[in-house]
Amino acid sequence: MNCKTVSARSWAFDTGESGELLVQEVRRLTQVENFDLAVVLGSGWSGAAQIGQTLGILPYRDWSCFPAGQIAGHGGQLVVVQASSWKILFFVGRFHYYQGISAFQAAFPVRLASALGCPRLLLTCATGGINSTYRPGDFMLVEDHLNLLGDNPLRGLPGDTFVDLVGTYQHDLYDRLMTRGADAPVLHRGVLAAMSGPSYETPAEVRFLAAAGVDAVSMSTVPEAIMARYMGMQVAAVAFIANTAAGLSPAAVSHQDVLACSSEHAQWFPCLVGHLIDAWQALQTDPPC
After folding, report:
1. Whole-angstrom Cα distance, residue 171 to residue 1?
2. Sorting pLDDT into bands at 50, 70 and 90, what band is 117?
3. CB within 8 Å of 243: residues ≥ 6 apart
4. What's the CATH fold of domain 18-154+165-246+259-283?
5. How far apart are CA 48 and CA 266, in angstroms?
6. Which of 7, 45, 89, 105 has the fewest Cβ atoms within 10 Å of its own Cβ atom?
7. Structural domain boundaries in the chain
8. What backbone torsions phi and psi does residue 258 show, to the nearest 5 degrees?
9. Burial, 15: exposed, middle or buried (Cβ in 10 Å; 0-12, 13-18, 19+)?
10. CB–CB of 14/23 below 8 Å?
């Protein structure tokens, strides 16, 4: 079992700040003080929020604390859900470094989740497959990452920012998913690289990443994972293989094709998120380390 833990802390927004007001509104709207899980939904993953009972919806555009601008395939709203006994925050749409914001700003949903008492974070994304055994439509459980964004969300923050990222991702959670049968999509376990974007990687960059042991490449996810560890949260991440990385197939890479592949396999997204939630809940009944 992955028993590595970090002391949890709660992000404190300044008094009167939009973030603090949003925390108050979420609690007022849902009558929930502390939440069990936050889920950040990447490109094409919006349908995964359609599980359980919806307790409230808050559009990003109504709150200045959310970075401005949304990318196609990202819904742009916070959906609060009760699934089984858990109260869950679904961030339908994420923020990216390539939008001209910092890694710290891109990780805003994690800070909000921490302020709302979340001890766990599930990250999702669409990626390009580098591992030769991966095919579009597969999924990869992220076991480790390579941060090539050129930024770190902890830069300039107070406190102990020298965070140990060994054991960032919940391998024990993944063990439970890999034992599932025919009702699950093709699942791999591997290393995710985060590149700055918004342009896709060159074939030379893809060869470099492959030589470095990377299995899939994205333009997201890593800032949120680092921030979550700083906040003492448990982290899991699942990547959808939406295309073959540049230079590994004769087809050109486009965001439209990424969304089309996501749409084609959309039935798996809520199913897989639901399985991850079930597995995480089951872990809570295991004997302590």
Report:
1. 7
2. very high
3. 128, 129, 136, 251, 253, 257, 258, 261
4. Rossmann fold (3.40.50)
5. 8
6. 7
7. 18-154+165-246+259-283
8. -60, -45
9. exposed
10. no
